[in-house]
Backbone:
């Protein structure tokens, strides 16, 4: 495994610089996993790594007793970082035509099938047309895609008519340029999505992995305090999105963020409370437009003072010329 990781780091470094075009492979299972098509799903394993929920067990807390039942898909064919590669010619992509320029997204239907299906259904129905990027946090994310009225709830109206479950896969992460579902709670996905914009420099300035490890140590101290209290479940419910178990995050994942940028705190794969945001796409062109949106002046609620409209979302097939401007770890 160490050999594979060294190779991965080298491959990712080249991918960031050259945006190499390689083929997309699907997920496949291991012997004990439940298989659905090419996707392998297991409630107690994330591939060959330690399960993040074991962080609770090590503190004497039974994860199941507090409602934590991880279901992380294991991708046996793709290493973490493959999302930085270009899709094959003819693969489905999404083109977001916005008032700040076009953004082309690679989609990952095998790793996040229900999420990608939802996105495609909404796009083809025209549900995203004339919606906006309503939330902008510079050097963090831009969020948009709210479909339906206020009655649809804070996550927007999904194509399924109700919120749907998270889909975490151990080959996809909230790297810079990754497209993820915005949710109001665990398994609370609707129509809203966001694009990660945190650069390498911003990630480092925020404290990087040292800061995230400090948060996890603080969380563990609180969990220990509440272990025999009736406040334990409430604490996990309220703070579970801060439970990134840095004790089990592999070095290759840490390296990806250090050379690419992004928001590992949003990842569900290594979250001890099975919380996070589903990654289902990656920007392969138009990161300049994303950065322009991220740099807009906002009000006190992170709403852009200059409205940014999504004119349309078109589902089409990939051609090499679409990736003339690939996402980069640093702003140009």
Residues:
């Amino acid at each position: 495994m160490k050999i594979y990781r060294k190779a991965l780091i080298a491959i990712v470094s080249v991918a960031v610089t050259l945006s190499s075009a390689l083929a997309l492979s699907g997920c496949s299972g291991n012997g004990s996993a439940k298989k659905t098509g090419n996707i392998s799903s297991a409630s107690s394993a994330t591939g060959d790594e330690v399960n993040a929920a074991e962080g609770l067990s090590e503190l004497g807390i039974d994860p199941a007793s507090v409602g934590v039942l991880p279901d992380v898909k294991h991708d046996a064919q793709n290493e973490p970082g493959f999302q930085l590669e270009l899709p094959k010619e003819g693969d489905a992509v999404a083109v977001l035509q916005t008032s700040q320029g076009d953004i082309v997204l690679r989609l990952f239907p095998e790793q996040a099938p229900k999420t990608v299906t939802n996105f495609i259904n909404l796009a083809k129905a025209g549900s995203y047309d004339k919606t906006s990027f309503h939330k902008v946090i510079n050097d963090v994310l831009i969020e948009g895609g709210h479909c339906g009225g206020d009655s649809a709830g804070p996550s927007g109206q999904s194509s399924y008519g109700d919120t749907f479950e998270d889909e975490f896969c151990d080959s996809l992460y909230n790297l810079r340029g990754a497209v993820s579902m915005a949710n109001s709670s665990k398994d609370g996905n609707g129509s809203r999505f966001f694009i990660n914009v945190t650069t390498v420099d911003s990630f480092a300035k925020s404290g990087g992995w040292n800061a995230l490890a400090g948060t996890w140590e603080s969380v563990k101290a609180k969990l220990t305090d509440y272990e025999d209290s009736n406040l334990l479940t409430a604490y996990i419910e309220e703070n579970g999105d801060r439970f990134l178990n840095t004790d089990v995050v592999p070095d290759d994942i840490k390296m990806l963020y250090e050379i690419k940028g992004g928001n590992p705190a949003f990842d569900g794969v290594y979250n001890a409370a099975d919380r996070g945001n589903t990654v289902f796409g990656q920007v392969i062109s138009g990161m300049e437009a994303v950065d322009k949106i991220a740099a807009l002046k906002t009000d006190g609620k992170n709403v852009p003072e200059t409205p940014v409209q999504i004119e349309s979302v078109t589902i089409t097939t990939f051609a090499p010329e679409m990736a003339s401007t690939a996402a980069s770890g640093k702003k140009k």
User: Anything to note?
Assistant: DSSP finds eight helices and twelve strands in the chain.
